[in-house]
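User: quick one, sequence for these tokens?
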């Protein structure tokens, strides 16, 4: 059974005014109108809006509507005169044709309005996609700018961690800034590990290895944890996710800080 909510949300009142509903839907709408004064008021408002809209916009309907109107008038004229010669029937035929003309014009206008609404929706979706793309570009630009500022900072000291015999191809460039307490590393030349292992960075402070963080596999520029009074930077191979203490026998590179 049709509810008042369904009627209003699906635009069935507008379609009822335009005669677009089937017999079952029309009956359901009329039953609701009989018992709901608010719906009757809404119906009158819709009818008034359609009338005002048609008068204010004065949109010329397509040529086929005019042709159909003239054809209907001609048929009504011939049929009425030949059958009875009654002038009243002739004018009733014209009135019916005029009514059909306005109905077709209203349906056409309603279709045009729905098309415009759909076009606006599409444009809105496109604008939303463009805005997301712009936000992504802006975010990437800001990120690159931040990395550039960190690497080009005159207080940033550069250290090269070269691989040992365990990983001779490894090479990590680190930028240590003691002023703003930051460490940035470039892992572009760090060999890829399998899924069961990760690289982990450590700072040596008075003989104690302090964790600086696990090195992600899918990034080249990475900010690591700064450790005060670090004497050296060290990189080991650890189980995936990192370790609480370094696996010394899997140390692949280290460098002493000035």
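Assistant:
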């Amino acid at each position: 059974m049709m509810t008042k909510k369904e009627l209003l949300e699906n635009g069935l009142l507008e379609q009822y005014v335009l005669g677009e509903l089937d017999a079952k839907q029309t009956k359901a709408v009329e039953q609701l109108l009989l018992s709901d004064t608010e719906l009757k008021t809404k119906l009158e408002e819709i009818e008034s809006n359609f009338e005002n809209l048609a008068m204010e916009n004065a949109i010329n309907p397509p040529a086929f509507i005019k042709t159909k109107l003239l054809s209907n008038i001609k048929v009504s004229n011939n049929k009425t005169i030949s059958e009875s010669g009654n002038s009243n029937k002739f004018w009733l035929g014209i009135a019916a044709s005029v009514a059909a003309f306005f109905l077709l014009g209203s349906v056409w206008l309603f279709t045009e309005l729905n098309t415009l609404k759909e076009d606006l929706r599409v444009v809105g979706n496109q604008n939303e996609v463009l805005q997301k793309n712009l936000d992504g570009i802006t975010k990437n630009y800001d990120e690159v700018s931040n990395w550039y500022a960190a690497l080009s900072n005159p207080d940033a000291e550069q250290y090269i961690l070269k691989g040992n015999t365990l990983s001779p191809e490894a090479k990590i460039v680190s930028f240590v800034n003691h002023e703003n307490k930051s460490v940035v590393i470039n892992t572009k030349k760090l060999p890829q590990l399998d899924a069961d292992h990760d690289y982990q960075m450590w700072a040596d402070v008075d003989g104690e290895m302090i964790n600086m963080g696990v090195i992600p596999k899918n990034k080249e520029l990475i900010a690591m944890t700064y450790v005060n009074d670090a004497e050296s930077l060290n990189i080991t191979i650890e189980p995936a996710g990192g370790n609480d203490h370094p696996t010394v026998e899997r140390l692949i590179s280290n460098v002493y800080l000035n």
